[in-house]
Specification:
The chain has 781 residues and is of the alpha+beta class. The chain has a domain of 275 residues: Beta-galactosidase, Chain A, domain 5, CATH 2.70.98. The strands form eleven sheets. A nine-stranded antiparallel beta sheet has the order 7-8-9-10-19-14-13-12-17. A six-stranded mixed beta sheet has the order 20-34-35-39-36-37. A hairpin with a 5-residue loop joins strand 22 and strand 23. Helix 3 crosses helix 16, helix 6 crosses helix 7 and helix 8 runs antiparallel to helix 10. It starts with 45 loop residues before the first strand and ends in a 24-residue tail after the last strand. The N terminus is likely disordered.
Length: 781
């Protein structure tokens, strides 16, 4: 992997609709194609802010080890579209969802999508980026093999399609209930279809066993035209069991078309419409995890009439409220990157309840959220670092609801655990640590307190003492996770220490001194895997023997580190940077080590077992979250100008407004949140610290309008390609000599005025007293 990602040479117009000039509104700078290249794993389809529906094209559905590039269902370099499904992850390194795929056809379709090389053999169609466009809440594409224009939009819980058929009297739509993102044999446990007597609507149920082990979904579907004919096919025990092979002669078993119900593990339906010559066909799909009635109610409430353009406008207005929180100055490219990052940051966690408040809990039962909106899709190993801190600024009410959703998960969990990586009523146990803890604590310390604090503390304690989880039994007994008992042992030890620090902060804020002292002590456990004789963290077995042989560059799939190596994880104790500096031998040695981290090339052989170590600058891997705070650490050594230079280097070489403009998975908005914070000129290095470490602003001016009515402006005077260093700073007209800000200062509103210059200022913020601090809680322990 090169440290600078080559941009794809693409023919489409990047931005909003192809060929159009950017409008004045900030929402028009959103470009959903950014990140749809090989590493970003974002999708270009229609979604509302935090929407439960993500209606988007799927270009390929892959299986097994060949599925990684298609985690979001869409890859920009593809040339065919298989169909449009209603649920997608944004920027993950794992895949699931892709529920209820629909595809319009100008002739009665084959039942299989057909091979990419010969889409005419199935229901797949070629497309061109020159005839494809996307903006916030809207997507459209010309299906070239069918001569059909497909358009998509979405509300919170409803996906809406509009298909314009050309030069045909009859149109068809295939509904494939066998397909999902990341297909494998027998993923679909059951599906059934119930047609209404007038054949203008139907309900669908499907249950899948994928990354989520049992995931039921219900769909209510309405058509703007009467169905002339419907054919339902059962492919159970035939071709479906033999994916991904293609057998064009297979048609499946045709179920009696006079029946209004059908069920099997492999259903497909073909609908014929005889009025497409005179008007477009519109389709509304309401989704629910609860019931058919819930899906119907969602559909009726959010799309009561047939007005596709009205839905587009309503959803775009929602996105306008999001983007209007910021006023920025910069080039069009910078605005596209900034507002698209904000767009991606607002896609997860996602709403997970019906309009009546009902949702399916992690216990499989139906619950009702009476005083909060329930959310799902918590990729916490990624998002605790920057996305959730960003939402505490912009969405305090939603953040409170997300905290309550986590606590509801804990109460429903048979394991009595807070969420680790959960979605749609399932805990996947993916990734490490218990990072819901810093999200909850950070919210509380920032004044978001609309939840039961006693319940929250109990949940944190029970989660952090759950001995069977990720080596916690040994961690509590030995002070570290031993490598002979657990894979990724070093990473687990360090990240649990980070979470333990957050528990200590919470207990201290609540006045529980005993628990605070206990967890402040546990927060030092990261030191037990730091070998001061070599200056790196490394594995240690249960007898206290260090891992031998040891290479700090090596990133094995099931080694001592999680998607990284010792170079990155030696700086991963975000809660105790000062302690890390002491272990490494002091300021100068740490600064030199950071220099080496950014300049020493990483041999591709050392990380070949990992698909998602990307965006490399030396040992720094911007595409992976454990590196995200590292560039800011020079501030702690009294050399903040090096942070300023590294942030500019990362911005210039690892980000763009092209489809390959993300250096790695966006990971449900974490990568985008890093970009937003870094553009503003500061970053939340230490969760729950109530302080932000200054980097260097990347835009001439950014104004952030806060929900409390205040505004915060960051002005970078004289910023240019050459002027990347901070010369001086004033906070509300008063010189600022420290390299950090407090949360309270930002929330109070005001102006941070920064004079930029071409040469580093090696006198600013170098004194120990001016380096980043953790804000005291002033309650005493």
């Amino acid at each position: 992997m090169l440290s600078k990602i080559p941009h794809l040479l693409l023919s489409c117009a990047i931005g909003v609709l192809s060929g159009q000039t950017l409008a004045a509104g900030s929402v028009d700078y959103i470009d959903p194609f950014i990140g749809t290249g090989p590493d970003g794993h974002t999708f270009p389809g229609a979604v509302a802010p935090f929407g439960m529906v993500q209606l988007s094209p799927d270009t390929q559905i892959r299986t097994g080890g060949d599925s990684y590039k298609w985690c979001a269902g869409y890859l920009y370099t593809d040339t065919t579209i298989q169909g449009f499904s209603h649920t997608h992850f944004s920027g993950t390194g794992h895949s699931d969802l892709g529920d209820l795929l629909l595809m319009p056809m100008s002739h009665e379709p084959q039942l299989e999508p057909g091979p990419v090389e010969h889409p005419e053999q199935g229901y797949r169609s070629r497309f061109s980026h020159e005839q494809e466009s996307a903006k916030a809440g809207y997507y459209s594409v010309e299906l070239l093999d069918e001569n059909i224009k497909a358009e998509l939009t979405a509300t919170d819980r409803v996906g809406m399609h509009r298909y314009t058929y050309r030069d045909v009297d009859k149109g068809y739509v295939i509904m494939d209930l066998t397909t999902s993102i990341y297909n494998f044999d027998r993923k679909v446990l059951w599906s059934d279809i119930q047609l209404s007597p007038d054949k203008r609507s139907l309900t669908v149920f499907r249950s899948t066993n994928g990354w989520a082990k049992y995931r039921p979904m219900y769909f209510a579907i309405e058509f703007s035209q009467p169905i002339t004919e419907v054919k339902i096919y059962n492919q159970d025990d035939h071709h479906y069991r033999n994916r991904p092979g293609y057998r064009p002669s297979h048609t499946g078993t045709l179920i009696n078309s006079n029946s209004n119900t059908a069920g099997s593990k492999a259903l497909k339906a073909v609908f014929r419409f005889d009025q497409v010559a005179t008007q477009p066909l519109e389709i509304k799909v309401g989704v629910s995890s609860v019931s058919r009635a819930g899906a119907k109610a969602n559909l009726a409430t959010e799309t009561p009439d047939w007005d596709f353009d009205k839905v587009v406008k309503q959803t775009q207005d929602k996105w306008s409220k999001v983007t209007n929180q910021f006023e920025i100055e910069g080039t069009d490219s910078q605005k596209r990157q900034f507002y698209t990052a904000l767009y991606h940051a607002y896609q997860a966690p996602s709403i997970y309840q019906d309009v009546d408040g009902n949702y399916r809990g992690v216990d499989g039962d139906i619950h009702q959220s009476k005083d909060f909106i329930n959310y799902t899709t918590f990729s916490l190993w990624d998002t605790y670092r920057a996305l959730h801190p960003l939402l505490t600024f912009l969405e305090p009410e939603r953040t409170g609801d997300m905290v309550q959703s986590m606590l509801a998960h804990y109460q429903q969990s048979p394991d009595q655990m807070l969420p680790i990586w959960s979605f749609q009523g399932n805990e996947t146990w993916t990734m490490i640590g218990y990072h819901s803890v810093p999200v909850i604590v950070d919210a509380y310390l920032k004044g978001i307190k609309n939840f039961d604090t006693k319940l929250a503390l109990d949940a944190m304690l029970n989660t952090s003492q759950h001995g069977s989880y990720d080596g916690l039994d040994d961690y509590m007994q030995l002070g570290y996770v031993p490598m002979d008992k657990q894979g990724e042992s070093v990473s687990k030890t360090i990240e649990m220490s980070v979470d333990d620090f957050a528990i200590a902060r919470f207990a201290e804020a609540l006045g529980d001194n005993s628990i605070a002292k206990q967890y402040y002590q546990r927060a030092k456990n990261y030191r037990n895997v730091f070998d001061t004789s070599i200056g790196f963290v490394r594995g240690k077995d249960s007898q206290g023997k260090w891992e031998t042989p040891f290479d700090p560059q090596e990133a094995k799939l099931y080694g001592s580190f999680t998607e990284g190596n010792s170079w990155q994880y030696s700086f991963a104790a975000q809660h105790d940077i000062k302690g890390t500096i002491e272990l490494m031998g002091g300021d100068e040695k740490v600064s030199e080590k950071l220099d080496q981290l950014f300049t020493q090339p990483l041999d591709a052989e050392k990380f070949k077992e990992h698909e998602d170590i990307a965006g490399l600058i030396g040992q720094y891997a911007h595409g992976n979250e454990p590196s995200h705070h590292i560039a800011y650490l020079y501030n702690y050594t009294g050399q903040p100008w090096k942070t300023q230079q590294r942030i500019r280097q990362i911005m210039d070489t690892l980000a763009s407004d092209k489809p390959d403009g993300l250096a790695g998975n966006d990971d449900l908005g974490q990568m985008s949140a890093w970009y937003l914070f870094s553009s503003l000129g500061f970053y939340p290095v230490t969760p729950t610290s109530l302080t932000y470490v200054l980097g260097a602003p990347q835009l001439p001016s950014v104004v952030m309008h806060l929900p409390n009515g205040n505004s915060w402006q960051v002005e970078a005077k004289g910023i240019s390609e050459q002027n990347q260093y901070i010369g001086s700073i004033q906070l509300n007209g008063v010189p600022l000599r420290r390299s950090y800000l407090t949360h309270a200062e930002i929330m109070a509103g005001g102006k941070l005025s920064i004079t930029m210059q071409a040469e580093p200022n090696k006198k600013w913020a170098t004194a120990v007293r001016d380096r980043p601090q953790i804000q005291a809680l002033n309650v005493g322990i």
